[in-house]
Amino acid sequence: MKVARFSKIGFILAAAGSAVGLGNIWKFPYITGEYGGGAFVAVYLITVVLIGFSIMIAEMFIGYKGRSDTVSSFEKLAPKHKSFWKYAGFQSMAGLMIMFFYAVVIGWIFDYIVLSLTHLPSSVEEAQNTFTQMAHKDFFTQFFYLTVAFMIVTYVVSKGIKGGIERLNDYLMPLLFIIIGGMFLYSLSLDSFSKSFEFMFKPDWSKLNSKAFLVAVGHAFFTLSLGMGAIMTYAASMPKDSNLVKSAFWVVVLDTVIALLAGLMLFTFLYEFGAGPDKGPGLVFISLPSAFYAMGVLGNFFAVIFFIALAFAGLTSAVSLVEPMVQYMIDKHLYSRKKASIVMGLVFYFFGIVTILSGLDGTKEYLTWGGSNFFDWVDFITASVMLPLGGFVMSIFVGYIVPKSEVESVLKPHLKSFFDVWYFNLRYIAPVALFIVMLNMLGIIKF
Ligand code: PHE
User: How far is the CA of 383 from the centre of ligand 1 (A)?
Assistant: First the structure.
């Protein structure tokens, strides 16, 4: 039985901390750039509102009612076939798997904090070389910063929900909002802002191919931290009289606002000081540092606080990626929190090293299958397959398996007349949409 619970605001900050991560500030801008801007953003926003928000409420409901780790929560709530439904709880393994590469990227960010303090690359070419040198040739630097990330995350998780996770979020999330908000305000004063705005909000539907559509849906899940038990595990420690709908609403709003502000700001800087928007995963690590360089002294300052904000966003998500498995080991296998945190930490640390090796010249050929390396495979299997699958399972579970009266008793007081709309969506729209997405991702059906 758990004793230490989140405070109400602590829960919202922690869940928002989970949601607002590298997905918002690193991934969202570059996939928006890659897939053509406005139309892509529109699909992402529609998915967030129609599917993401509904599934977020369902996932919080399972955790809030189950009050346990993910496996035990499914087991408790299933009226029958408990030993079957408990397997749904293994979606929390996806979080640990995401950490195999997430921790490595957090390490890169640490490296870039130091780089911005010492020497910003002066051109896109130099920035490209700097990044290539680190990611493809330099094992030691990556290993060193991965170790730092491993130690911080493991330490925070070992301190528990209240003393570790809530505390971390209480400090880092407000700072993150201030940094991103401040930099956004500055970008408003630049001429290129209107161009950036147009790029993100003026849809050119001809650019929306089926791949872009699928990536937008997958990203909506990833960015909201849905489908792998993070939100569920946090919700198990919500105060008893919490309003789930209001909490879900705030998490979705904060996550979306930060993604949009970060996107608008980054594209403004890129248009104003350097390269265009379509630069792929290197956008934040390659184009942006050279744009900061072109900005002069202010750019140096921005570079440092930007990478610090990115590190904060990454760390508050990372703890939520590990926590579900830690909670599972505590509840189901009676590990102490310290032992569970260290064991799970060592798992992602070890596979983090594999991720590093899969990008290095000399070792990558051994860790590449079918044209994609270990990093790409883990990213694909988790974000494109496991998270939508987790979402699908939760919509079926809450929509069909848990008795309606039980769902109603928790959610109707807050959803009021929207309850029926939400329930209908959860039963008919979300699962069908997710099923189609998964089939597509697996390449079974092609549009
Ligand atoms: N939502 C986080 C991000 O946008 C990533 C994440 C996914 C965290 C799933 C927890 C669970 O970076």
Answer: 9
